[in-house]
Amino acid sequence: xxxxxRILLYLVGVGFGIIASMFFFGDxxxxxxxxxxxxxxxxxxxxxxxxxxxxxxxxxxxxxNASSFEKVFKDGNLDVDFTASxxxxxxxxYRIEVDQQSYDSFMLDxxxxxxxxxxxxxxxCVCE
Length: 128
Prior knowledge:
Number of strands: 5
Structural class: alpha+beta
Number of helices: 4
Strand content: 25-35%
């Protein structure tokens, strides 16, 4: 058997293998979340979601509602600032930065199975 024929048979086998793999495994939704930021955001998004009274006041001051904020939280590009976050203990508080919004970042509390927005950091609104 010539070398060219061996290479051709090898490539045909690899092609059949790729087609079989796509048939069996093609419809899977894979998510690469191995880095700390991606793992934290994925964990927070998979929990129940609530907004504190102070954060709701700040949202109203910015002219936003809870559903628009939740849409940004679930679908937006979020970056966790681990240096400004408190990740010690059972309940962790994260500072999450947001791009291209009317606010710069927000503080989120992660306790048990609940992600609770504590405050929204914006220079134009002050709520106590």
